[in-house]
Specification:
about 350 residues; alpha+beta; six-stranded mixed beta sheet; four-stranded mixed beta sheet; about 30% helix; globular; PurM_cligase; PurM-like_C_dom; ligase; purine biosynthesis
Length: about 350
C-alpha cells in the first residue's frame, strides 16, 4: 500500500456505528424492564421476544389480534424540539388502541427505530416513552430493533414504528354485527391532536403562519411546541374495563379519517350513526388550525379528531354505568349521538355530524 492509497472500507466509515448501537441497548434496558408482564420470558438482547402463551389456556377459544402503526410526521416536532421521551407513548397508543377496538387485551409489543445516526441517549429516550406507554396500556415490551440508515436519513432524523399482539375470546369480539338501532354513541375525550393530521398542522402553523415552536399561545396555555408534542391518550385499559363492566357493542378509535370516518367502520348496512356537534366543545388547538389556516370545517373533521379520541357504542341501559365508570377512571366522556335506521339523508353503514359545536 502506498502513501496515497485510501484506507480500507469499514462499516464505521460508511456511517454505521456498531458501538453506539450497543450503548443504546444498554441504556434502554432499564426502561424495557419496567414494561413487562408475568408472561414475559427472557430479557432484552435476544433475536426474538418471548411470551408465555400458556396464559391463553384460560380462554375457551382465544383469537389473536395484531396491529401495527407509526406516528407519522409528529416525529418532526420531536426532532425540532429535541424532546424524544414522549413520542413513544404516541406509538403505543396508535397500536394498542386499534387492538382494543375489537375487545382484545394487548399482550406484547415490539418496536422499530430507524435513524440517520444512532445517538444512544436519544434512542434510550424514545424507548423510555415506548416502555411508559406499554405500562399505561397494560402490555409488555418484549423486543425491538434499532437501525442506522446513513445516506437515507439525515443524522438528526429518525422514524418509529411498532406492532402489538392481543387476545380476545371469540364470542366476545366487538364490532358492527353487534350494533343495534337506538344504541348510544359515547365519546371519550382526546388529549389533543394525538398523532394524526400533522402534515396539515405543520403546513398551517409553520409554512403558512410562520409560527415558532416556542411561541406562547394564550388559548393553549402553553407554547405551540408543547401543544403539538403532547402525547396521545391511551384508552386500552379504560375500554377493557368498560367492556368488562357493561354491555358494549363496538368501539371506534378516532385516527386518520376523523370521527365520522372511523365510526362508520363499525356501523352495519341499514344503520347510521348520528353525532351531535353541540354535545362538546373541541379544544382550542382545533379552532386554531382552522382559523389560522382557513381550513374548512369538513376538511378539519376528516383530518383531525376534533377532541374525540375513542368512541363506544352501547345499548341505552349501559349509558349511565358506562359514564360513571369512565368518570371514576378520570376519562371525560359524554353521550354524543345515537344509532338510527338508515333512510333519506342517513346512508346505511355511515356516520355523520350534525349541528354546530358548543361554544
Amino acid at each position: 500500500m502506498t502513501e496515497n492509497t485510501p484506507p480500507g472500507a469499514s462499516y464505521a466509515a460508511a456511517g454505521v456505528d456498531i458501538e453506539a448501537g450497543e450503548t443504546a441497548v444498554t441504556l434502554m434496558k432499564e426502561w424495557v424492564a419496567k414494561a413487562q408482564r408475568p408472561e414475559s420470558v427472557g430479557g432484552l438482547g435476544g433475536f426474538a421476544g418471548l411470551f408465555d402463551a400458556s396464559a391463553l389456556t384460560r380462554y375457551r377459544r382465544p383469537l389473536l389480534a395484531s396491529a401495527t402503526d407509526g406516528v407519522g410526521t409528529k416525529v418532526a416536532i420531536a426532532q425540532r424540539m429535541d424532546v424524544h421521551d414522549t413520542i413513544g407513548q404516541d406509538l403505543v397508543a396508535m397500536v394498542v388502541d386499534d387492538l382494543v377496538v375489537c375487545g382484545a387485551e394487548p399482550l406484547f409489543m415490539t418496536d422499530y427505530i430507524c435513524a440517520g445516526k444512532v445517538y444512544p441517549e436519544r434512542v434510550a429516550a424514545i424507548v423510555k416513552g415506548i416502555a411508559e406507554g406499554c405500562v399505561l396500556a397494560g402490555c409488555a415490551l418484549v423486543g425491538g430493533e434499532t437501525a442506522e440508515h446513513p445516506g437515507l436519513l439525515e443524522p438528526d432524523e429518525y422514524d418509529v414504528a411498532g406492532a402489538a399482539t392481543g387476545v380476545v375470546e371469540a364470542d366476545r369480539v366487538l364490532g358492527a354485527d353487534r350494533v343495534r338501532p337506538g344504541d348510544a354513541v359515547l365519546a371519550m375525550a382526546a388529549s389533543g391532536l394525538h398523532s394524526n393530521g400533522y402534515s396539515l398542522v405543520r403546513h398551517v402553523f409553520f409554512d403558512r403562519a410562520g409560527w415558532a415552536l416556542d411561541r406562547d399561545v394564550a388559548d393553549f396555555g402553553r407554547t405551540l411546541g408543547e401543544e403539538l408534542l403532547h402525547p396521545t391518550r391511551i384508552y386500552s385499559l379504560d375500554c377493557l374495563a368498560l367492556a368488562e363492566a357493561v354491555e358494549v357493542h363496538a368501539f371506534a378509535h378516532v385516527t386518520g379519517g376523523g370521527l365520522a370516518g372511523n365510526l362508520a367502520r363499525v356501523v352495519p348496512d341499514g344503520l347510521h350513526a348520528r353525532v351531535r356537534r353541540e354535545s362538546w366543545t373541541p379544544p382550542p388547538v382545533f379552532d386554531a388550525v382552522g382559523s389560522v389556516g382557513r381550513v374548512e370545517r369538513e376538511e378539519l373533521e376528516r383530518t383531525l379528531n376534533m377532541g374525540v379520541g375513542m368512541v363506544a357504542v352501547v345499548p341505552q341501559d349501559s349509558v349511565a354505568p358506562a359514564l360513571a365508570l369512565l368518570a371514576e377512571r378520570n376519562l371525560p366522556a359524554w353521550v354524543a349521538g345515537e344509532i338510527a335506521e338508515a333512510g333519506p339523508g342517513l346512508p346505511g353503514g355511515g356516520a355523520g355530524l350534525t349541528g354546530d359545536y358548543a361554544a
